[in-house]
Amino acid sequence: MTAVMNAKRPRALSFGNLWISAAIIAVLLLYPVFFGKAMNFGVSTVLFAGLAMSWNILGGWAGQTSLGHAALLGVGAYTMTLLATPERGPAWLQALGIGNGAAIAPWWGILAGMVIAVLLSLVWGALTFRLQGSYFTLSSIAVALILRLVAINEDFTGGSQGLFMPELPTFFGLDLFDRKVEYGLAVGFVVLTLLVTHIIRRSRTGYALQAVREDEDGARALGIDPVRMKLIAFAISAALTALGGGIYAIYLQAFEPHTLLELPLSVQIALMAIIGGRTTLQGPVIGAVVLAVFGEVFRNLFSSANLLIYGVLILVVTLFAPGGIMGLFNRKGRRLGTAR
C-alpha cells in the first residue's frame, strides 16, 4: 500500500526526454545515408527495437515478465502470410469459401493479425493473470510452446518447413521487398510504439499500471482492478508485437516455427527492454542497439556463444545498472540536478 501511495503520476514528456527521442529518430532516419550497404543489420535492429518497446508495455509498465512474445510475433507473421496465400488456408475455412478467394493485401493481413493477437492476449491473460511472479512467466512459455507445436504439426502453416512469402502488391508504388522500404516500415513501427508508450506514460492508465506493478493489493484497495489493467497492457503489447511480426515476415520472406516461435527469440526481445531499461521511454531502443552491436562484433569471435554474451550483459546490468542503461543515466541526471 505504501508503494502505491508513493507512486507518482507519470509526468508529461520533459524536454530532456523529448530531445533524446528526437535524436534517436534522427539517427534512425540518417542510417541509410551513411550505412546503405548494411541495410539487413539496420532493418533487423530497428524492428527488434520496436518489438522490445512493445514488450515493455507489458513487461515494464505492467510488471508482467513474459517470455512468450515470440508467439504473438508469429501470429502477425503467419496471419499476414496466410491471407496473402489463401489457397493454403485451413480446410474448415476453405469449406466456408473463405480460403479460395483472392489474396489479401499485406496491410490488411497485418491488421487481421493484430486483431487475432489482441483476442489471443485477452484469453491468455484472463487465464494467467491471476498468477504472479515467476508463475506467469512460466505460463507464458507454456502458451508459446503450444502455439509452436500447432505451427509445426498443421499443414496449412507449412509444418516444420514453414512458409514462403508470395509476391506482394506495391505499397503506394513502393516495392515491399526493397530493403530501404522495409527499413522505412521498421522506423515507422518504432515511432508508433514510441508514441503509444508516451501516451500510456502520461495517462491515467499509466498511473494505474504503475500502481499495479508496485503493489497489487494496495492498488486493489484504491479501486484499481489489477487484472483489467494488465489485460489492457497485454492487448496493446500484443497488437504492436503482431504489427512487428507482419513487417518481420516481409523482411524474412521465408520463415519456419523452429526459428520464429522459439524461446530464445522471446528471451532476446525481453532482454533488449531489460538491458535498456524497463519503464523508460527510450531504454528498449538503446538495449536493442547494444545487443545487436555486441551480437555482430562477437559473432565471429565466439561463433554460437550469443547466449553467453547475453548472460554477461545481464550480469553487468544487474550488478551496475539494475534499472537498465537509461535508468542509470536518469539516476545520474537526478543526482547532478540535486547537486546543483
Summarize the structure.
This protein is 73% helix and 1% strand. With 340 residues, it is mainly alpha-helical. Helix 4 (69-84) packs antiparallel against helix 6 (106-128) and helix 8 (179-202) packs across helix 9.
Compute the number of structural domains: 1
Helix content: over 70%
Q: Would you tell me the structural class of the helices and strands?
A: mainly alpha
Determine the N-to-C terminus distance: 33 Å
Strand content: under 5%
What strand line-up does the widest sheet have?
1-2
User: How many distinct helices?
Assistant: 16
Outline type: globular
Rg (CA only): 20 Å
Q: Uncertain spans, ≥5 residues at pLDDT below 50?
A: 9-15, 336-340
Please provide a written account of the structure.
The chain is mostly helical. It has one domain (2-264). It has 16 helices and 2 strands. The protein has helices at residues 2-6, 15-34, 39-61, 69-84, 91-95, 106-128, 134-153, 179-202, 204-214, 216-221, 226-252, 257-260, 263-276, 283-302, 306-320, 324-339; strands spanning 163-164, 254-255. The chain has a two-stranded antiparallel ribbon with strand order 1-2. Helix 4 (69-84) runs antiparallel to helix 6 (106-128) and helix 8 packs antiparallel against helix 11. It is globular, with a radius of gyration of 20 Å. The relative contact order is 0.18.
